[in-house]
Amino acid sequence: MRNLMGIEKELFRVPRTRAKEIPHAYPCTTPDNPTDPYTAQSNVVDPGNCPPPTGGPGWVPIEDQPGEYNPYQADEVIIDPSIKNYYPCVSRIIDSLTNYSNMNALAQVALHTVFGVNEKMHLTFKTNSGWTQSDDDAGTKPDSSFVSESGFYATIQLNPWVLKNSTEEYIASTIIHEAIHAYIDFKYYQYITNQIDSIEFKTLFPIYWPPNISGGIYIPPGNLSQHKIMASNLVATMTNSLISTYPNASISPELRDSIYRGLTWGGLQHTTAFLSRSDTLAIKAINIIARDTSVHAPFILTGYPTPQYTYDAHNLNMKIGCQ
Question: Percent of the chain at pLDDT above 70?
């Protein structure tokens, strides 16, 4: 990972929204459903057609008990003014990804862990004003001075050129990618501080097992190792996060899914799994037009006279820029 520069500024804290909860209603019959108990579909609206029984409360919303820890109670994601003041779409993207509710796969668990549902994760988003078009899109750096059993602190720095010139879909893909990096780092530090055991770590990241040890010291998984972890079993679920956030009804689902899958693979181009694919040129082309919206069709890839690509971010109706 890149050695990220620290920028000491006042931080703006964005409270995360909690996951949706379905309340309960006292079992009762209704004219439309005389046999099965009625179940409320909202925790803020009394269904009205479920009369309270004698001595009973009827409809009751679910509320947290004071002091009770809810694993889906959101924490905070810290948005630095370098993003908040100039790139408001980043906050919207993070909100959308946080609200993506498919918790059945590791990538979604990672996103929810990073974006607020684990009380020990502390994540700061910043831009790096020194980065330009030729630099990395983003980088994630754990703060080793704040890694302990009481918490895990990490910073994701985003390239301001990318925020200005790329599509929102590309930016979201970058944030998802970095979220997975933060999650892997988080679980690694949980492992070396004995908060999780080797069985859980191996189950999460079998491709990285056994971990590297030098002089009795555990070596954290590097950038390429983490990319191999993503490429081995996370591409589909990382892609699904994009599909949920940017459904893009103006193009066919097949084309949309192919584009978003290409964006996910775009950050994994040095892995064996990527290099073994037959569509690497198409993936590169997709990432070029999504990263730089000034590219217009038709175009060819440098060094490859064919094929000629007839699509770009504009005729694919992607969201342009993060202003």
Answer: 69
